[in-house]
Design a protein that fits this description.
15 helices; 8 strands; 6-stranded antiparallel beta sheet; alpha+beta; two-stranded antiparallel sheet
């Protein structure tokens, strides 16, 4: 639920979080908490850049860290592996991101969680819920946080010998965060049932007659059914997924018009918007898209006869280019403010500093994840 601004006392502190950190939350679903008799009824994984992955009751989605706010300090908690490395935590975050769009389990399954949590019973539904998403993301790296990664509850992470509480991960709410926190809460509520990923997977599942819950499951049936590739390509083209520019123009129609941009925000709001988006594109959107493009390049290289793989290679490249176009536009808008609203812009820079790289600078992508995926496939 949305916590009204006058009731917010605490929020997560992204400056003290690492990718892979486990976020436990009281989301004020009092009926659920009463049934579960728990301290925290929701769990998520921090993936960096002020975003988290969660199973929200409909799908696995990516949400902003400020889309959750708390009335009391102990209404949230952050846990981290006691002995680990940033590389392992990064892979855990990648495992969570790969589940984007996965369907939420039938809630009838929850009646079995406590009966099975200390057993070897495995779930075969191919679906997820909040604590399962977290536990399975770790288990994919060989880290068994809980007795059963398929059947577990948020409070179970508090009992894990592998985890410790992260100090200063919860911070006091300040008025300068009010607009972003309220906006992010509202956006989470308004878009919680939307998932282009899930819609695409469902359509491809009908085509192939399979339960498809992630991109790998969506692509590999084409190996045994190449006769359906043209239909699959048509479904992907008609989907909202992989259409970065369409999403941007729908959500920020004023972004590519200088006059409308200057009218939409005051200078401080505009610069917060630009700094946040430049950071998000530099650290999450473009690197993630490039990783996906590399995967498609590899598939098309080893299976050149598969027309779906070849199509996806080129289709994802277009998405990468669209993201870079947007990132370049942010730099242009920053310079627009410098030229058109110089006094206010300089005052903002004096208070908050200058973003480290205004102009977009392409960065190499670490291909280690490809080698790991190959090793897992052959394990």
């Amino acid at each position: 639920m949305i916590v009204p601004q006058n009731e917010i006392k605490y929020v997560f502190n992204p400056y003290n979080l690492l990718p892979g950190d486990i976020l436990l939350m009281n989301t004020y679903e009092e009926d659920m908490r009463a049934r579960m008799q728990c301290k925290y009824e929701h769990a998520a994984i921090y993936i960096g850049d002020a975003f988290l992955m969660e199973a929200n009751g409909v799908h696995v989605v990516m949400s902003h860290i400020y889309s959750y706010a708390f009335r009391e300090f102990d209404h949230a908690c952050v846990l981290r592996l006691k002995k680990t490395s940033p590389l392992i935590l990064k892979e855990v975050a990648r495992n969570a991101r790969k589940q984007m769009g996965r369907e939420y389990v039938n809630t009838m399954q929850f009646r079995y969680v406590r009966a099975y949590k200390n057993t070897d019973r495995q779930d075969e539904s191919n679906k997820s819920f909040c604590s399962r998403l977290v536990a399975q993301s770790y288990l994919s790296e060989g880290i068994k946080l809980l007795p059963n990664a398929d059947y577990c509850e948020p409070d179970d992470f508090l009992k894990s010998d592998f985890l410790e509480i992260v100090p200063d991960a919860i911070t006091e709410f300040h008025e300068d965060l009010a607009k972003v926190v309220i906006n992010q809460q509202q956006q989470r509520e308004e878009t919680e049932i939307e998932s282009p990923n899930a819609e695409l997977f469902q359509a491809l599942g009908k085509l192939y007659g399979k339960d498809i819950q992630d991109l790998g499951q969506a692509l590999f049936p084409s190996q045994s059914r190449p006769d359906l590739n043209d239909c699959a390509i048509g479904i992907i083209k008609s989907s909202k997924m992989f259409k970065h520019m369409d999403v941007v123009k729908a959500s920020t129609p004023w972004m590519f018009d200088n006059e409308q941009f200057l009218m939409h925000y005051n200078v401080e709001e505009a610069l917060h918007f630009l700094y946040s988006n430049m950071n998000h594109y530099d650290n999450t959107i473009i690197p993630d898209y490039k990783e996906l493009h590399l995967q498609m390049i590899m598939l098309a290289y080893y299976f050149p006869q598969n027309t779906l793989f070849v199509f996806m290679r080129d289709y994802i490249k277009q998405m990468v280019d669209e993201a870079i176009t947007c990132r370049t536009r942010f730099a242009d808008l920053f310079m627009l403010l410098v030229n058109e609203r110089s006094t206010e812009t300089l005052a903002f820079i004096e208070q908050y500093g200058l973003y480290r790289d205004i102009e977009y600078k392409p960065q190499p992508v670490d291909i280690g994840f490809l080698l790991k995926d190959i090793m897992k496939a052959y394990h």
